[in-house]
UniProtKB/TrEMBL annotation, chain A:
<keyword id="KW-0813">Transport</keyword>
<comment type="similarity">
    <text>Belongs to the binding-protein-dependent transport system permease family. CysTW subfamily.</text>
</comment>
<feature type="transmembrane region" description="Helical">
    <location>
        <begin position="70"/>
        <end position="98"/>
    </location>
</feature>
<dbReference type="GO" id="GO:0035435">
    <property type="term" value="P:phosphate ion transmembrane transport"/>
</dbReference>
<dbReference type="GO" id="GO:0005315">
    <property type="term" value="F:phosphate transmembrane transporter activity"/>
</dbReference>
<keyword id="KW-0472">Membrane</keyword>
<dbReference type="InterPro" id="IPR000515">
    <property type="entry name" value="MetI-like"/>
</dbReference>
<dbReference type="GO" id="GO:0005886">
    <property type="term" value="C:plasma membrane"/>
</dbReference>
<keyword id="KW-1003">Cell membrane</keyword>
TrEMBL record, chain B:
<dbReference type="GO" id="GO:0006817">
    <property type="term" value="P:phosphate ion transport"/>
</dbReference>
<feature type="transmembrane region" description="Helical">
    <location>
        <begin position="188"/>
        <end position="207"/>
    </location>
</feature>
<dbReference type="Pfam" id="PF00528">
    <property type="entry name" value="BPD_transp_1"/>
</dbReference>
<keyword id="KW-1003">Cell membrane</keyword>
<comment type="similarity">
    <text>Belongs to the binding-protein-dependent transport system permease family. CysTW subfamily.</text>
</comment>
<feature type="transmembrane region" description="Helical">
    <location>
        <begin position="72"/>
        <end position="96"/>
    </location>
</feature>
<keyword id="KW-1133">Transmembrane helix</keyword>
<feature type="transmembrane region" description="Helical">
    <location>
        <begin position="140"/>
        <end position="159"/>
    </location>
</feature>
<keyword id="KW-0812">Transmembrane</keyword>
Length: 305, 291
């Protein structure tokens, strides 16, 4: 009888611990999510009332209420374009090589190990590298091109890893079917592997661009200016050949740097501007990440091999 | 002809993959070559033992210790938030929550890592610090504590997502065996799943440490930028990364001692991160052998 009671008490105790642990788990999750919510609400309450059309078309100014983020969002946009143009082809090509071609030898092992390691390197060291290499050695200046290249290299591992994951999900039967029809390796990749993995690759591209748009430290390091009251040269002009690339060499600022600049001033009016910029940044990142999550789940469901 | 084309394509793709190695070589190479002149000017002994870091003052002192203490302090605070929260959240998600709820909770948690760091800086300076000042009345406007806590929350998803992946890849028959001998869910989680997934959990911790060491904007905004040899988290301090930002904001002539000093700081940061990575690799090897 005693041992039965002991057993019951024991079970009860363990159920209690089980429950306590589940509660702890729930609380940890809640703590993290409530912090995220507090951040969004706090930023939104300060920043949203400040956002109006003029905020987007005004240049920064020393009068807080007149200041806007025109040069910052134009800069962010142009740098994202540059980043995408240099990172996507490189990253996808590298992902395809590692997944479809590479043999198990020391060269591919070094490349794989290196990509894992790159994820752990602090982003500010990319900025230092860019300052030394692009700005001073290659004489590209503290320009949009330098910034785009820097962020492109920074997000390269994200694109490589997501491309590989997307390609790995494609079953071998697809490849075999293609070879059986007499297709070459490249034809198989070009007409089957790449189209089928495009959803996963797109997810990686979106995530990497959302990372790039919020990145601040490496751009400060390469010498981005914090006060820019002019726009880069327009990429389209009236004369033949109608496009020019001189904007690549123009100095720039971006939204995170503008926000940092306003935040480091003592006056609270500028902090309101910082909050408003933060809202714009946050909305863009959340939309991009939401899109990526949606895409990922949609493609996972749709693909039934 | 066709074979030639195939070869050419393979070579191009290989070059793309190899370019990632060039990035690493570029980073290490530039950091080393640009900081070499610094050590011709400052003896290594002073660099490692001097207790002041004032490279831009007239009476310049070049001791890395204050920056190192600031960096380690903010990292320790961040980890003491992120590791317990992240691990418990991961165990909860992998062992307790239904898969359908996990599919929603995990991406939402990952949004924490997506928020731009400068926004976290705003949050630390204008929300967390005033909140902490209600609890600790004499807390200054700039302090390492609030920066560290915010970095901790920010890296929770890095810790929890990878840990959760590792825990979920533990084969189910181990869990079933544990339940069969009468273990509770929590006992199974702590004595079977977590030990079996430990090598993966270690990688998650290492990634979290790297993020915390290298985090820049939160500390640059909320921790103040004064190099301060202290272990008191309520004081302002500068981290290695905050120093680099501070100097980069000024006009930086190429080749000046200020220019060299940010490379020296960056090199120290890289060496520090590398040390933790090696420790992590060693830990992982050790625990994998036990299996």
């Amino acid at each position: 009888m005693d041992s039965r009671q002991e057993l019951l008490a024991n079970i009860k105790r363990r159920q209690m611990w089980d429950f306590a642990f589940a509660l702890m788990g729930l609380l940890s999750l809640l703590f993290a999510l409530v912090t995220l919510l507090a951040l969004i609400v706090d930023l939104g309450m300060t920043g949203i009332p400040r956002i109006n059309a003029e905020f987007f078309v005004n240049f920064p100014s020393r009068f807080a209420e007149k200041a806007g983020i025109l040069s910052a969002w134009v800069g962010s946009f142009l740098i994202m374009v540059t980043t995408a143009v240099c990172a996507i082809p490189l990253g996808v090509a590298a992902g395809v090589y590692l997944e479809e071609y590479s043999k198990k030898n020391w060269v591919s092992q070094i490349i794989e190990l290196n990509i894992i390691n790159l994820a752990g390197i602090p982003s500010i060291t990319y900025g230092l590298m860019a300052l030394g290499l692009f700005v001073y050695k290659l004489k590209l200046g503290q320009s949009i091109l330098t910034a785009g290249l820097t962020l492109g290299l920074l997000v390269l591992p994200i694109i490589i890893v997501t491309t590989r994951e997307a390609i790995r999900a494609i079953p071998n039967t697809i490849r075999e079917a293609s070879y059986a029809m007499g297709a070459s390796k490249w034809q198989t990749i070009r007409y089957h592997i790449l189209p089928y993995s495009s959803g996963g690759i797109l997810t990686g591209v979106i995530i990497s661009l959302s990372r790039a748009i919020g990145e601040t430290a490496p751009l400060i390091t390469i010498g981005a200016l914090t006060f820019i009251a002019f726009l880069p040269t327009p990429p389209i002009d009236g004369q033949f050949p109608y496009v020019n690339f001189t904007w690549l060499m123009d100095p720039f600022t971006v939204m995170p740097i503008q926000m940092f600049n306003w935040l480091s001033r003592p006056q609270p009016e500028f902090h309101v501007n910082a909050a408003a910029t933060g809202v714009v940044l946050l909305v863009m990142t959340l939309i991009m990440n939401g899109g990526a999550i949606y895409l990922r789940s949609r493609f996972r469901k749709k693909m039934k091999w | 002809m066709r074979r030639l084309r195939e070869r050419a394509i393979e070579t191009v793709l290989f070059l793309a993959a190899a370019s990632s190695v060039l990035v690493t070589i570029g980073i290490v190479g530039i950091l080393v070559t640009e900081s070499m002149p610094f050590f011709a000017h400052v003896p290594l002994k002073d660099f490692l033992t001097d207790t002041q870091w004032t490279p831009l003052f007239e009476n310049a002192r070049y001791g890395i210790l204050p920056l190192l203490s600031g960096t380690l302090l903010s990292t320790v605070i961040a980890l003491s938030v992120a590791i317990p929260l992240g691990t418990v959240a991961a165990a909860f998600l992998s062992e307790y929550v239904r898969p359908s709820a996990r599919e929603i909770l995990k991406p939402v948690l990952e949004l924490l890592a997506a928020v731009p760091t400068v926004v976290y800086g705003y949050f630390a300076l204008l929300f967390v610090t005033p909140l902490l000042q209600k609890i600790i009345p004499n807390l200054g406007g700039f302090n390492v504590l609030s920066a560290g806590i915010v970095i901790g929350v920010m890296i929770v998803p890095y810790v929890s997502s990878l840990s959760e992946d590792a825990m979920r890849s533990v084969p189910n028959h181990l869990r079933e065996a544990s339940f069969a001998v009468g273990a509770s869910r929590m006992q199974t989680a702590f004595r079977v799943v977590i030990p079996a997934a430990f090598s993966g959990i270690t990688s998650a911790y290492i990634l979290g440490i790297s993020r915390a060491l290298g985090e820049t904007m939160v500390v640059a905004i909320a921790a103040g930028m004064q190099p301060n040899l202290t272990i008191n988290p309520t004081e302002p301090a500068a981290t290695i990364t905050a120093f680099i930002v501070q100097v980069s904001l000024g006009d930086l002539p190429h080749g000046s001692i200020g220019y060299q000093s940010i490379y020296v700081a960056g090199l120290s940061l890289l060496v520090l991160t590398l040390c933790f990575n090696i420790v992590g690799l060693w830990l992982r090897k050790k625990f994998q052998e036990k299996e």
